[in-house]
Amino acid sequence: MKTTWPKLSFEEAQKTYETIHLWTQIVGKIRLIKTPWINHSWHVTLYVTPSGLTTSDIVDGEKHFQLDFDFIRHQLQLKTSAGETKSIDLKMLSVAGCYQQVLDALREVGIRADIYPVPNELENPIPFDKDVTHATYNPEHAASLHQAFLRAHDVFTRFRAEFRGKCSPVHFFWGSFDLAVSRFSGRDAPKHPAGVPNLPDWVAQEAYSKEVCSCGFWPGSEAFPSAAFYSYIYPEPEGYKEARIKPDQAYYHPELREFILPYNEVQGADDPEAVLMDFLHSTYEAAADLARWDRKALEQESFVNRRKAGRSAYKQLNKDE
């Protein structure tokens, strides 16, 4: 069924996005220190919910708790297995205020969370406890972003279901502020060069220790000031950046080393889900074929049969004219 996708403007919503990004880092770091390590840092991620983003269940001794961003009621909510609840109003809330109120709320229910108070994956970050600069929350911008996450999550989940090899959940990385899903070939990858700002090199190197084809959605940043979908493979095989992909509006970004599909091309399409799925399929197929992945073993049989006819057309599309 076709759905209506919200309009997004990074230029108009930038300050709200930056503030929410830093709030999610605070909450994400609490999940990080309380959760056993899972490969590729999957233990740190947040998850999309009908009302926002959640840590899901976290264990602290005999107590379980979770932290939820609610972009409908515009609150950050704490819930525990003992029935305790706390709510923080997101309006007029600075990063420093969020940091203090979250830690206070946890202490009030007997939970201590001593996180490293410096944001990750950002240039020249301000420590959480000192950041009164980022304090913008426009409810309409937050609600529209959440609706975009919901739409993307649905398509990514259906795309994930077509793969029976190792595949990540559809999850939200608070370091890079993006929703992503990743497929793996099962083979080792060469050591990643790392170099991500304010992130230990070993974290990036472990995350990219296996061959991976990843796709996702982010709302934009100063370096790339526009909402977009992306798709890449590591390591990148020869010929990947020249591959013909769908739709025509998608392109290879040489600095990012990934294919980009502008969000507004999906949002404004007659069938947004179909346009996005074409992008996911064509970029994955280019990556998997050029890297010689064992697609028959990795993909669901129903998907393989369904795509056979289209695959020959795809190969013809990628031939030199």
Folded structure, characterized:
It is a single chain. The chain has 321 residues and is α+β, with helices and mostly antiparallel strands. It has 2 domains: 10-138; 140-317, no CATH class. The protein has helices at residues 10-34, 95-108, 139-160, 201-207, 263-267, 272-290, 295-298, 301-317, and strands at residues 47-48, 52-54, 58-60, 63-70, 75-80, 85-89, 171-173, 178-188, 210-218, 228-234, 251-253, 258-262. Strands 1, 2, 3, 4, 5 and 6 form a 6-stranded antiparallel beta sheet that branches. Helix 3 crosses helix 6 (272-290). The radius of gyration is 20 Å and the shape is globular.
* Distance, first to last CA: 36 Å
Q: What is the SS-derived class?
A: alpha+beta
Number of domains: 2
Radius of gyration: 20 Å
Residue share in helix? 25-40%
Low-pLDDT parts are none
The coarse overall form would be globular
Number of helices: 8
Kindly state the mean pLDDT as a whole number? 94
Task: Write out key terms for the chains shown.
321 residues; 8 helices; 2 domains
List the helices and strands and how they pair.
Blueprint lengths: L9 H25 L12 E2 L3 E3 L3 E3 L2 E8 L4 E6 L4 E5 L5 H14 L30 H22 L10 E3 L4 E11 L12 H7 L2 E9 L9 E7 L16 E3 L4 E5 H5 L4 H19 L4 H4 L2 H17 L4
Antiparallel strand pairs: 1-2, 2-4, 3-4, 4-5, 5-6, 7-8, 8-9, 9-10, 10-12, 11-12
Helix pairs in contact: 1-2, 3-6
